[in-house]
Design goal:
Phosphoenolpyruvate Carboxykinase, domain 1; Phosphoenolpyruvate Carboxykinase, domain 3; nine-stranded mixed sheet; binds oxalic acid; binds manganese (II) ion
Length: about 600
């Protein structure tokens, strides 16, 4: 498919190492994809689902020891350890290649090597970057065909250039003690071995579009962020864009595909999805920030997705979708997961492929007793999404009015607050945190700091990443405002106070009003919060203005506890934390102590 000598010699070298029976180039054609689906069905790698109810849909099960990303086995291999920083696992590149090469040696024996040329971003656009993934897995090929732009045009766009990200993946024997997800940012290389689970093996996603891209972004003056991108359309047709970063389990996909509350829908408000997971962001000619979603599909968590929580996501999965580790309903050959509906299948296989008895389900042992694995997934095409933005394929991206950070905090963070400026906003992002929801009754949440939701995804030293944010701020004459939200505040009985889901639009509208200078705010020790009357609660039954007041209170004592925890975290990040962020921390502490 190409005469590019850099590509050909690399493939030759890798093939000599892994020793496949054959090398197959993936050309992006439907014909080739269909043949691969048929082959995967014949070996049991895929199960073809009911084509009347779920046309083009398939089920896959990963090995039971291989159901999630493995942060403990994910490495950033820079020549100097301090360039990877203390938050990442580090290995010396030379030693790492040696270890990996032993595992790769002959690992494709008896198998084919699939060569996947893919583009993150619209092929040929200024934002786009090219990768080539070599894999021994048809499942990976079929997922990459959904999640990225694959095919001949990518190779044409690359031409004779050596500017692409190399990715070598081998499921090998899926031995978890020998599982490695390694990044060599100085060599534009990703190596993944002994896993077949999406986040570890779809190398365009977390490995390239976040870890390697964050490194490239710092070098080249742009940003790769773990953010959704959405557009809010006003009744007059104006659309304003927001990007938002949340740690896992905070409803990112739900927010990206939000359905406005009834009164807002009737008034003509709409929400459009540009992306649900990753944003690549550059400064535009007009001095604003512009964002694209480099992906072409959604790799969403299935459990909890239903007609109420996220009808758009559910519709997105109805055609051409690959389901991974969900429950297989044998009566009608469809799929099911916890939280889809209250009607679990009576004749079904669980995510392990064993006969499943729904009556034995025990919330305290989800992995052991559920039909679908808690981290089971759907891989769905973006074009299937009913609320996909018309700007999804935009070459220049969408202009950001606001950047929103969020976390899951029972008490500390108010419903929403606005940072004072870009530097303070960077600080707000750097102290992002979520409380883990322990399954055991009464267990207290443990705070995990997850700066900009990038803790597992920064491809270099976290302190340098904070510095990059501050440096970017100096290059954006018309920077978006930076906010923080918390949908998860609870009352004394532990019930959520804010209804969340579609009603989050009410908060987004205040955020956008602030960006336009249309509404006042109240200054507090942590930043600006709304006046309670400025959050529109029309049509909400259980929320009064007093509820909003409660949601906006700031408890100095719990914030001071947080300050202590932030100091510990900064110390852990190490001596590259910029002085400006320590200044912001000192201001926060002083404000709270007044
Ligand atoms: C994801 C994640 O899968 O952030 O998107 O873990
Ligand atoms: Mn993610």
């Amino acid at each position: 498919m190409t005469n590019n000598k850099h590509v050909l010699s690399w493939i030759e070298e890798m093939a000599a190492l892994v020793n496949p029976t054959e090398i197959v180039w993936i050309d992006g054609s439907e014909e080739q994809a269909e043949a691969l689906r048929a082959e995967a069905c014949s070996t049991g790698e895929l199960v073809k689902l009911n084509q009347d109810l779920l046309p083009g849909c398939y089920l896959h099960r990963t090995a039971v020891n291989d159901v999630a990303r493995v942060e403990g086995r994910t490495f950033i291999c820079t020549s100097k350890k301090e360039d990877a920083g203390s938050i990442n696992n580090w290995m010396d590149p030379k030693e790492c290649y040696e270890t990996l090469n032993k595992l790769y040696k002959n690992s494709y024996a008896g198998k084919k090597m699939y060569v996947i040329p893919y583009s993150m971003g619209v092929v040929g656009s200024d934002f786009a970057k090219i990768g080539i993934e070599l894999t021994d897995s048809i499942y990976v090929v079929l997922n990459m065909l959904i999640m990225t732009r694959v095919g001949k045009n990518v190779i044409e766009a690359l031409g004779d250039s050596a500017d692409y990200i190399k990715g070598l993946h081998a499921v090998a024997d899926c031995d978890e003690s020998k599982r490695y997800i390694c990044h060599f940012p100085e060599d534009n290389t990703i190596c993944s071995v002994n896993s077949g689970y999406g986040g570890n093996v779809l190398l365009g996603k977390k490995c390239f579009a976040l870890r390697i891209a964050s490194y490239l972004g710092r070098k080249e003056g742009w940003m790769a962020e773990h953010m959704l991108i959405l557009g809010v359309e006003y009744p007059n047709g104006d659309v304003k864009y927001i990007s938002a970063a949340f740690p896992s389990a905070c409803g990112k996909t739900n927010l990206a595909m939000l359905i406005p509350p009834k009164a807002f829908k009737e008034a003509g408000y709409k929400v459009w999805t540009v992306g649900d997971d990753i944003a690549w962001i550059r400064v535009g000619e007009d001095g604003r920030l512009y964002a694209i979603n480099p992906e072409n599909g959604f790799f969403g968590v299935a459990p909890g997705t239903n007609d109420n929580s996220n009808p758009n996501a559910l519709l997105t999965t109805k055609e051409g979708c690959i389901f991974t580790n969900v429950c297989h309903d044998l009566d009608n050959n469809t799929v099911w997961w916890e939280g889809l509906d209250n009607n679990p299948p009576k004749n079904a296989l669980n995510w392990r492929g064993e006969k499943w008895d729904y009556t034995k389900y025990d919330k305290a042992d989800k992995v052991g007793t559920s039909g679908a694995h808690p981290n089971s997934r759907f891989t769905a095409k973006a074009v299937n999404c009913p609320c996909l933005s018309s700007e999804f394929n935009s070459l220049k991206g969408v202009p950001l009015s606001a950047i929103v950070f969020g976390g899951r905090r029972a008490k500390t963070a108010p419903l929403v607050y606005e940072s004072r400026n870009w530097q303070h906003g960077t600080f707000v992002g750097s102290i992002m945190a979520s409380e883990t929801t322990a399954a055991a009754a009464g267990a207290v949440g443990v705070v995990r700091r997850d700066p900009m939701a990038m803790r597992p995804f920064v491809g270099y030293n976290m302190g340098d990443y904070f510095r990059h944010w501050l440096d970017m701020g100096k290059k954006i004459p018309n920077a978006p405002k930076i906010f923080h939200v918390n949908w998860f505040r609870t009352d004394d009985e532990g019930h959520f106070i804010w209804p969340g889901f579609g009603d989050n639009l009410r908060v987004l509208l205040w955020i956008l009003d602030r960006c336009e200078g249309k509404v006042d705010a109240v200054e507090t020790p942590i930043g600006f919060v709304p006046k309670a009357e400025d959050i529109n609660i029309e049509g909400l039954d259980d929320v009064t203005i007093d509820t909003i007041r409660e949601l906006l209170t700031i408890d100095n004592a719990s914030w001071l506890e947080d300050v202590a925890n932030i100091k510990e975290f900064y110390a852990q990040v190490g001596d590259r934390v910029p002085a400006e962020l320590y200044d912001e921390l000192a201001v926060l502490e002083a404000n709270l102590s007044k």
